[in-house]
Amino acid sequence: MDLFNLQGKVAVVAGAGGGIGGAITHALAGYGADIMAVDRNLESVRSNTVRLAEMGCKAVSYGLDITDVAEIEKMADAAVAEFGRIDILVNSAGINIRKAVVDIHEEDWDPVINVNLKGVVFCCQAVARVMIKQNKGKIINIASISSLLGHSDRAAYAASKGGLIQATKVMATEWAKYNICVNAISPAAVDTPFIDGLKKNRERLDREKDRIPLGRIARPEDIMGAAVFLASDASDFITGHNLIIDGGRTVD
């Protein structure tokens, strides 16, 4: 059990106000990590950090526009000033604008790429600079099975997540000599507000469930164990990996 013990570890979770990010903060805290919960919507994480503190960990909230590189660097500095180190980074921030390729405009494409790819990569960069000095760290990027499949109306989202998988592999290669493990998690649809559009369309929801051998969409808690594993010493020899959590959706 000590392999999964995160006591004394500091985790920065970007996108902590979302369903997946929020669940991961609780999972990491449950195994002993202290938490900096980061989100553009500061109010969305403040109540969360109160609950985390009640669990016995140190938890702080931080407001961040992940598309602003200068602000990302300030966030990493603030984490070090608050906790003295960063052991774990989880990048769960993400947006999606659903449009057919022939209908996409720059104002649709750019925000998705800037949040899901640019922002995440520069967040990794800023935190990795801290981890390099420590000679150890765990970085977990939340991608998507859209990086693997040709889902209609999701070109920008799929491109951002596919790019993130490749960037994860490059970062894993470059930072391995510093004992930094960089991995990705690619879920199928997860029952959070992010997929409210899908949940409101019963026909589409049933069709999606039918494509999943386990017969349901994922729940946030389905992602929690994987995040704890990749954040812990149990995964010290795993880097550059994309862990697919999809109930068998991509088996065929």
Structure description:
The chain has 252 residues and is of the alpha/beta class. It has a single domain (2-190, 219-245), classed as 3-Layer(aba) Sandwich (Rossmann fold), CATH 3.40.50. Helices cover 46% and strands 15% of the residues. The protein has helices at residues 19-30, 42-54, 69-83, 106-134, 155-175, 196-200, 202-210, 221-231; strands at residues 10-14, 34-39, 59-63, 88-91, 137-142, 180-187, 242-245. Helix 4 links the parallel strand 4 and strand 5 (137-142). The longest helix has 29 residues, at 106-134. The mean pLDDT is 93.
Short structural summary:
With 252 residues, this protein is an alpha/beta fold. 46% of the residues lie in helices and 15% in strands.
SSE layout:
Elements: E1 10-14, H1 19-30, E2 34-39, H2 42-54, E3 59-63, H3 69-83, E4 88-91, H4 106-134, E5 137-142, H5 155-175, E6 180-187, H6 196-200, H7 202-210, H8 221-231, E7 242-245
Parallel strand pairs: 1-2, 1-4, 2-3, 4-5, 5-6, 6-7
Helix pairs in contact: 1-8, 3-4, 4-5
